[in-house]
User: Fold this.
Amino acid sequence: MNLSATRTVRELAIEIPNATRTFEKLGIDYCCGGGKTLSDACLHAHIPVDDVLRALEQGGSFTPATQAALPDFNGALGNLIEHIVTTHHVYVKQEIPRLQQLLHKVVSVHGKSHPELGRIQQTFHEMSAELNSHMMKEEHILFPHIAALENAVNSGRPKPKPVFGTVSNPVHMMELEHDSAGAALKSISELSSNYTPPEGACFSYKTLYTALKEFESDLHQHIHLENNILFPRAIAMESATEVSV
Ligand SMILES: [Fe+2]
Ligand SMILES: [Fe+2]
Assistant:
């Protein structure tokens, strides 16, 4: 493992699977901002780079539990897609209605004394609508195309000709939508003072902030798998395929 501050956050996140947990804990953006070098990302997050390097060194080894939970980044793209859909898409679809209910409850009781709650609710509502439509496009258009592309390459058949021209086009659109969801959650994190409930907050208030924090963390991991692993590999596979009719 080549651990250096001049390498990009994306490279380190791919090579050291536990790195994403360390980045999440320290507030280092490894999904949408993964193209930055580690030293730039640390500057941006106001964290000494040596502390991050040390944390990566200590947390870089696998444990059986984390190894089992993560897909093989170099394995079949079909398996990675299945992991993304069954782990992250299912989670997002389950959490959105639960969080909306919780938000409704907490805003109706505490919204007057905590006006930021209304803004959090509005931001979450808009982001949820975008995310639902985003995942539908991935599940019905982009992911089936990537799986078909992989099948064609593996069996030596001509690659499929998508209506969207090249896989880079929907990938670019998905990345823009990831940026938008990431920005919405960053704004929710700021509005909630990094998910810190006020003194004496009720159980629902605390549950809401814990669940929102987990939602953000899961989305970072989800976007990392797509932006940094699935999409670049699909683009490379498309351009490396020579058979075309
Ligand atoms: Fe996704
Ligand atoms: Fe996505």
Summary: Residues 61-68 have pLDDT under 50 and may be disordered. Residues 116-155 form the longest helix (40 residues). DSSP finds nine helices and no strands in the chain.
